[in-house]
Design a protein that fits this description.
The protein has helices at 87-93, 106-112, and strands at 5-12, 18-28, 35-45, 56-61, 69-75. By secondary structure, it is mainly beta. The chain is flat, with a radius of gyration of 24 Å.
């Protein structure tokens, strides 16, 4: 029996060597004859952490790799190079953002404006 191949969009790449792919299917409602979109999310194996959220990929059914993961990414965009965006390394080299200033609370602001009774 041939392996199933599905096409979808990567929605999450937070896990190591795993991407979450949303596969959408359209079908006609049996009574109302309108097209309905349904989607399902699959966890797929991405050995080299190539793919990022928003990439259109093809996934293929395979033997179970873990409890939830029995799909593997076989094809994706051309610019998805191995180690394309090592997020940890990018976070270490990024400049530190200035600290955010906090707003005064309403009670403190009211006392400063002379609103005490």
């Amino acid at each position: 029996m041939p392996k199933r191949v599905l096409q979808g969009v990567v929605t999450s790449d937070a896990c190591d060597k795993t991407v979450i792919v949303r596969v959408e299917r359209r079908f006609m409602h049996p009574v109302y004859k309108k097209f309905i979109s349904r989607s399902k999310k699959f966890a797929a194996h991405d050995e080299e952490n190539r793919y990022r959220a928003g990439d259109a990929v093809k996934i293929e059914e395979t033997r179970p790799i873990s409890k939830r993961k029995s799909w593997i990414v076989i094809e994706g965009p051309a610019d998805a190079a191995p180690g394309r965006g090592n997020r940890r390394a990018a976070a270490e080299t990024a400049p530190e953002a200035p600290p955010r200033r906090r707003r005064a609370s309403r009670s403190a602001a009211g006392e400063q404006a002379g609103g005490a009774a």
